[in-house]
Amino acid sequence: MGVVGHFSSDVSLEAGTVYEKGQLAMISPTSTSVKLSSLGNYIFRTVPSDQLAGQALANYLTNKSGLQKTAIFFNSSSNYSQSIKNEFTKNLAQNNGEVVAEFDLGNTSFSPKANVDVAISQGAEVITLLPNEKTRNQSLQVVQVNQGRLLLLD
């Protein structure tokens, strides 16, 4: 017996600890958080972790676009969003890129226009969007207020 799921890394991490304790296998087709790899012997995924995605995003930014400075928009209360942000940031630094600003899409005082303006004033050349399912609308607002001023990476 086993479980197929869950959709989000947040739910998979929470449920995975229970499944692991009960020695019930779980396989997730979509959860990418790096933390999932260390939950135990009964927890699996069918997709690569955020380690690979973070590396690919950083390589694209620095090697393909030729740009180095980014502002990151993420959700600090999401394991997925934090995981991909951490992996991207680590790999970006290894590629001599720089995060010039970070903005929490889940913050109750989040202001897309003000945050994009701050990103530009801090020297950002790129906006990196790393939302989770709960902050997709805020992410779309960032795209709208950016009005093509900065390259978007998602």
From TrEMBL:
**Leader sequence segment:** none
InterPro entries according to UniProt: BCAA_transport, Leu-bd, Peripla_BP_I
Write down a Pfam family by its short name. Peripla_BP_6
Q: Has the keyword Lipid biosynthesis been applied to this entry? A: no
**Is Signal given among the entry's keywords?**
yes
- Which keywords belong to this entry? Signal
Q: Where is the Leucine-binding protein domain?
A: 3-128
Please give the superkingdom of this protein's source: Bacteria
What family is reported?
Belongs to the leucine-binding protein family.
What protein name does the entry list? Leucine-binding protein domain-containing protein
**What lineage does the source organism belong to?**
Bacteria, Bacillati, Cyanobacteriota, Cyanophyceae, Oscillatoriophycideae
